[in-house]
Amino acid sequence: MLKKTLFQLFLSTFSLFSFNFLHLLGKLLGNVLFLLPGRAKKVSQINISYCFPNKTQEFKKNLCKHSLIETSKALLESPKVWNMAKKSESISFITTNENLVRQSLNQNKGVIVFTPHLGNMELVVNYGGTKFNSIIPYRKAKIDFFEKKLKELREFSGAQMVPTSLGGVRSILKSLKKGRVVIIASDQVPTNKKTGVLSTFFGAPSLSTSLVQSLASSVGSPVFSLACIRKEGGLFEMKFSEEMSNFSHLTTQEGVDLMNKELEKCIMDAPEQYAWEYKKFKHSTLNDPYK
After folding, report:
1. For residues 280 and 237, is the Cβ–Cβ distance under 8 A?
2. How are beta strands 181-185 and 111-115 bridged, if at all?
3. With contact defined as beta carbons under 8 Å apart, do 194 and 162 qualify?
4. In the chain, what are the domain boundaries?
5. To 10 degrees, what angle do helices 2-14 and 144-155 make?
């Protein structure tokens, strides 16, 4: 009951402020998180050390600090994103290569877009729902109230949220065959080692999802990567790659390796905006680095 009340208070309070003010608060919160010991800071430091082993300690320290700031901004701006979707209010997006995605829809094989947790995934959901009525797979929250509420908030934008289950994958396949856009946060680590493929992420071994390649090879869908980047003044960029040629004809290993390379390119557009606090290297060949 307390968690439900606090979440409702979080939604009602932070939906009232401007993006600029929320980003100022995020900067303050991120600095506090960097100064104090905590899980997000510890995991970020570990991940950054694996991904940038040849960088200086000063670089790693600054990246960790600014990552915690940008993650805090993403957290605090999410209620506003949801509230704007509920009220059918537009968010200011600038786009790159959106026209290429729309042209690929003419092939009637749907379009697969994969993206890292860069910028803010709630903005990706808003954009994908508003512009394309996208179908988006997600992991269910463990608490029923949060599961129902988050799904409701996200679908105000027009997106269709489906769980990452066998039934969800079937829904995605049907949607692609009907010519829809599917957006997948493909940097998530599979919960089951049997559903993933060992690849590399910034040179370190990482269990990675094969869902993107599996869907593409099943339907022959065009594939794009997407970087969501927070700009100044409440402006956000959605930066698509060009269509990835012959992706659907690659082997599973080739597809996963290429996907990870593209994720790296997206992240390096704004590395401080990546969610380095996510345990990317669990279930890999590394001994659990997060213990």
Report:
1. no
2. parallel
3. no
4. 2-273
5. 20
Token look-up 């786009």 returns: 95
In three-state secondary structure terms, 220 is: coil
Which residues have a Cβ under 8 Å from the Cβ of 9 and sit 6 or more positions away?
A: none
**Which DSSP helix (H) or strand (E) runs through 22?**
helix 19-35
* Cα–Cα distance, 75 to 265 (Å, whole number): 24
Residue 38 and residue 24: Cα distance in Å, rounded? 21
Residues 6+ apart with CB under 8 A from 192: none
Question: What pLDDT is recorded for position 110?
Answer: 96
> For the residues 73-94, what does the mean pLDDT come to?
95
pLDDT digits (tens, 9 = 90+) for 250-275: 999 999 999 999 999 999 999 999 99
Contact 39, 291 (CB under 8 A): no
**Closest Cα to residue 263, out of 274, 253, 277?**
274
Query: What's the whole-number mean pLDDT along residues 86-99?
Result: 95
| 27: three-class secondary structure by DSSP | helix
User: What 8-state DSSP symbol labels residue 16?
Assistant: S
**Quick one: pLDDT band at residue 96, thresholds 50, 70, 90?**
very high
Q: 167-194, pLDDT tens digit by residue?
A: 889 999 999 999 999 999 999 999 877 7
Q: Tell me what pLDDT residue 166 has.
A: 87
Sequence-ordered list of residues with C-beta below 8 angstroms from that of 268, at least 6 positions apart, any chain: none
pLDDT in tens, 198-213: 999 999 999 999 999 9
Radius of gyration of the chain (CA): 19
Q: Which is it for strands 223-230 and 196-201: parallel, antiparallel or unpaired? A: unpaired
